[in-house]
Amino acid sequence: MKKLIYAITAAVMLSILLPKAQSEDLKDNGGVISLRGQAQLFEQDKAEDMKRVQRDQSPIARDYLHQPPLIPHQTRNYKINTNSNKCLSCHSWKNYRKSGATKISMTHFETRDRQQLSDVSPRRYFCTQCHVTQADAEPLIANDFKPVEELSGGK
Ligand code: HEC
Ligand code: HEC
């Protein structure tokens, strides 16, 4: 019983003292401004407004070989979980003809040991891990990237 009381007292003391000590330590971050603004590490910065995803369009030119093509349509409420994968209801080999969507390529059936499966490989199941929708947003950091001309017509 004594031990328990000691433990509880220690826990309470820590919870009172620790946050104070932390905020003292981090008061001065040396003027560093990161992408999340000048907020201190322990502060919550205001979340950015959600970006508007562009309207449905035809496939977007690729910028380099092996680039996961960008998603040229909205994907709001497209669920991907253990029971269902909304993307595959249009993009699977079984359904692509009916939906008019591009079928997933051979690489999506390959395991990391190069074994060919007869269904989508688990490592390619979560489509939006690699394929993303587009918003008309300014780049966070300026850059002079140019796409491979052969693929994009040098746009
Ligand atoms: C209702 C059917 C449908 C659903 C659901 C759907 N797509 Fe599509 N998707 C299409 C169609 C149609 C196209 C355009 C094909 C074309 O015009 O050549 C397309 C195009 C794409 C492309 C561009 C392919 C390329 O070659 O540039 C990608 C990537 C893509 N979809 C990914 C996804 C992902 C990821 C999901 C799930 C989050 C998804 N799609 C859900 C119908 C669908
Ligand atoms: C680990 C990353 C990754 C995941 C996860 C992934 N893809 Fe891809 N996808 C790629 C890459 C890279 C390419 C382009 C090269 C290739 O075909 O492998 C591609 C190509 C495609 C294409 C164009 C195929 C073609 O013939 O031009 C479609 C459509 C597509 N993916 C849909 C999907 C869908 C639907 C899912 C989910 C079931 C998915 N992808 C999951 C990386 C991924």
Q: What does this 3D model show about the protein?
A:
By secondary structure, this protein is mostly helical. It has a domain at 52-137 and 148-152: Orthogonal Bundle (Flavocytochrome C3, Chain A, domain 2). It is 23% helix and 0% strand. The model is unreliable at 20-25 (pLDDT under 50). One heme C binds next to helix 2.
Strand content: under 5%
Mind telling me which CATH architecture of one domain this is? Answer: Orthogonal Bundle
pLDDT < 50 stretches: 20-25
The CATH class of one domain is identified as Mainly Alpha
Element order: H for helix, E for strand? HHHH
What Rg, in angstroms, do the CA atoms define? 25 Å
Average per-residue pLDDT, rounded, comes to: 85
Question: What is the element layout, followed by pairings?
Answer:
Blueprint: H1 2-25, H2 88-91, H3 96-99, H4 149-152
Bound molecules: heme C (2 copies).
